[in-house]
Design a protein that fits this description.
Layout (H helix, E strand, L loop, with lengths): L2 H14 L12 E6 L6 E8 L5 E9 L2 H14 L4 H15 L9 H4 L12 H24 L18
Antiparallel strand pairs: 1-2, 2-3
Length: 164
């Protein structure tokens, strides 16, 4: 089986059987992001533990298979991680997806997120793949900025996405 075909199957599986779908409580922040170029949208909630780990990511939204599958993959990758590690994973996904194919990505870091490497060759689809990942980053920034529990936690500046 060709690698690209396997990646397509991973994306379709996450689209048909999404992980983390359905908004849950409790949560520390809720964000709504829209991709104005295609109409994809997502509402995403993030809950962090008191010791700085990602306790839960839940979402609801509508859009293409790429945006919805990428958000499903995000939930698998970051839940249970320390906030800093989760943000590093988001950054690694962002680097790969915006590289136009120059950066292959690391499967050990990205897990099923590696399936989106081919998307980087299609600039019109990059924002689709990044939608949930940037929403996650935005939500984490909101929690860290508003909570004394995370004082001193370094959060990189947000890039991309459109919050409303």
């Amino acid at each position: 089986m060709r690698m690209e075909q396997m990646y397509q199957e991973v994306i379709l599986d996450h689209y048909k059987h999404p992980h983390g779908r359905g908004l849950r409580e409790p949560f520390g922040a809720e964000v709504h992001h829209v991709n104005p170029t295609c109409g994809d949208e997502i509402t995403l909630r993030v809950a962090l533990t008191d010791d700085g780990r990602v306790a839960d990511v839940s979402y609801d939204g509508q859009g293409c298979s790429i945006s919805q599958a990428a958000t499903s993959v995000l939930t698998d990758q970051v839940v249970g991680m320390a906030v800093g590690d989760a943000l590093a994973t988001v950054d690694a996904f962002g680097e790969m997806i915006t590289s136009r194919g120059a950066i292959e990505g690391d499967e050990d870091v990205l897990g099923d997120g590696i399936a989106f490497a081919g998307v980087s060759k299609y600039p019109a689809r990059v924002k689709c793949a990044l939608l949930g990942w940037m929403a996650f980053k935005d939500a984490v920034v909101q929690i860290v900025d508003s909570s004394e529990n995370f004082a001193g936690t370094a959060v990189p500046a947000q890039t991309g996405g459109h919050a409303s």
